[in-house]
Amino acid sequence: MSHTIGVRQAQKQKTRQALLDAGLRLLAEQSLSSLGLREVTRVVGVAPAAFYRHFRDIPDLGVALVEESLGSLHVVIRAILAEQPGAEERIDRTVAVVEQYVRENPAHVRFIARERHGGVRAVRKAIAAELARFAAEVAAGLREQPVSDAWSDDDVLMLAEMYVDHLVMTASAILDAADDGDAAACDRIAERARRQLRLISLGRLHWTD
Amino acid sequence: MSHTIGVRQAQKQKTRQALLDAGLRLLAEQSLSSLGLREVTRVVGVAPAAFYRHFRDIPDLGVALVEESLGSLHVVIRAILAEQPGAEERIDRTVAVVEQYVRENPAHVRFIARERHGGVRAVRKAIAAELARFAAEVAAGLREQPVSDAWSDDDVLMLAEMYVDHLVMTASAILDAADDGDAAACDRIAERARRQLRLISLGRLHWTD
DNA sequence: CGCGTCGGAGAACGGATGTTTACTGAATGG
DNA sequence: CCATTCAGTAAACATCCGTTCTCCGACGCG
């Protein structure tokens, strides 16, 4: 193994993670700009002052949550881009992956959707920067598909950004429906997303006229 | 004239509107779930207790703001749907109208984009309901276009919802760029929106296969 | 082993919060 | 014209907040 870190640093990271988890949990029913420092420490079971050992303030915790949330989204993008077969299968698989991701990481999805346009500038910027990176990654994936041969790089990026926006929107919509316990609505939204992707896919085929 | 209302009721509506305006102004830099009652009354210049003469609590004020914000959006939708000529002109006009709307009502746009996924359930529901109404209206407009002749009602609604989502996203993106004072970025986003609409429009033409 | 480091505890602070209460005084309407 | 209604005031309430101290005790390293 590379290096066994000390008990000291391990315990620190443990409470740091506990603070992040508590914050994410509390953000299910409020937004970051109303999240209280004491509120978070109370859930974790540490003194308020302990917070400062890990974050400067609440916005700082928010930025850390962005990295955590969108780090796990990275896996999803890779999974979607890796698909090889026809357009129809790729669409089905894409939506299926999104559905699964929302089911397994509901809090992260909610956090990103909520704070993307939320009241904390630093967090908005962090999310925007990360989503831009994803869009670039998606664009690179699209570039390799034969359909994009005659496309300009700018147009490919435009398409990628639309996909990313659509992905976030769909994930958030599924989550909202799931919160209401309405499984039928989830399926409806997934089906709608599939048809919307199909429509975009059709546009792609005839773009070069 | 129909009926001149009393000085009493007029003065009341005046301060009510002042509370709404103050709330909207404060929401430029925070989200609704962190907006304080005293904060709002302080800006208006009335006693905190006076707030209760107009709203039950802050979420209640939020719901009122939704109605005010999306009431003005109604005009925009009408303006877009009224266009007659070719697809290209309609797209240009649509984006132009959105740009103008964002320039004239930045606070309303920010509020809707922010609270659409925000931390206050009642406000989220109100926005979702209102946007669903807009989507239905857009769908009705699309129905009348010859391009949609062979479409099912369900597919037309799916398309309309995509347009509404795209509209909100674009408006919010333009606003963010405008906040940074980056006029060039605004133009870039507008141009991107036009191309995205063109892509969707292309998909529409070949949907019935 | 012994000493420095440092994550966390605990208490204290000044200030801001939402809500309730009793009140004032001007518009209202018979 | 006079009794009533009611939008807004002023003060007091119990809490809660973020931040700053001092201090403790277990870990890290030589």
UniProtKB/TrEMBL annotation, chains A, B:
Recorded superkingdom: Bacteria
Stored SUPFAM superfamilies: Homeodomain-like
| The keyword DNA-binding is assigned to this record | yes
DNA-binding region of this protein: 36-55
UniProt keywords (A-Z) are:
DNA-binding
Q: Where is the HTH tetR-type domain?
A: 13-73
Kindly give the Gene3D superfamilies that the UniProt entry links to this protein: Homeodomain-like, Tetracycline Repressor, domain 2
Record carries keyword DNA-binding: yes
Q: Which InterPro entries match?
A: Homeodomain-like_sf (IPR009057), HTH_TetR (IPR001647), HTH_transcr_repressor_FabR (IPR050692)
**Which PANTHER family does this one have?**
HTH-TYPE TRANSCRIPTIONAL REPRESSOR FABR
Write the protein's name: TetR family transcriptional regulator
